[in-house]
């Protein structure tokens, strides 16, 4: 039925939360912060996540015009490390970013589903992310070469759920919308985006959440391995 499968990346193929946590843990250890102090680490991590969410959304709303990703990180560190003296925030942000860009912690079953689907379909990725990070992370996991199309929002200035980002992927794959299945974990970005582009959607319900009655994905899976039974 399908000639290609397009995946979302973060929290679909890659476990974004674990990649972020591991990169940050490595970075603060490299800069000798919170040594053997899990309480202070946990306080920092909560503060950082809250601050970063705000600065990231400002970055997204302004399409990265006023600030770079490096500035987003530095501002997040400024907020969450205000009481600490000593760390060079620019160096800390750079260490974290380098670690994150080489972090490829996959979702359970991602490796096997990539191997399986690559034998039967063209593969693509559509991601609302930072292109350099997404490509480096795929390369770090030795899976970059598996994809025939990779479309990342900051490289083209279009984000999901706009249909145009899906149209670009279809053009790169030389396929029409009825020849493609899109797999993602977000109902707001992935489901609505696929619907806007008139592409069949498979909802990766990784947390087993209740699905609102008005939401009607073509398929629902709770594990990536379940994709084998619907393709």
From TrEMBL:
Pfam families referenced in this protein's UniProt entry, alphabetically: HAD_2
Gene3D superfamilies reported for this sequence: HAD superfamily/HAD-like, Putative phosphatase, domain 2
Hydrolase keyword on record: yes
Residue stretches in coiled coil: none
Keywords on record: Hydrolase
Keyword Cytoplasm assigned: no
GO molecular function: hydrolase activity
SUPFAM superfamilies in alphabetical order: HAD-like
InterPro entries registered for this protein in UniProt: HAD-like_sf (IPR036412), HAD-SF_hydro_IA (IPR006439), HAD_2 (IPR041492), HAD_sf (IPR023214), PGP-like_dom2 (IPR023198), Pyrimidine_5'-ntase_YjjG (IPR052550)
NCBIfam families: HAD-SF-IA-v1
PANTHER family, alphabetized: PTHR47478, PYRIMIDINE 5'-NUCLEOTIDASE YJJG
Official protein name in the record: HAD-IA family hydrolase
